Amino acid sequence: MVMYGKKIELFLVHGSFDGTVLAELSNWNGKAIKVLRDDQDINRNDLKDIGVYFLF
Question: What is the C-alpha separation between 9 and 16, in angstroms, rounded?
């Protein structure tokens, strides 16, 4: 079995992990977005696309 490395890019919108975080995996079309409930970035264009959303 051959394993290949993957690159994950994290973009810290407010400069820290406490705020909105965008994650992208190389060679994958999707995005993972972490937004806090009280964060003002809930109106981002990224969240207006079709997708699967998990609310905790």
Answer: 14
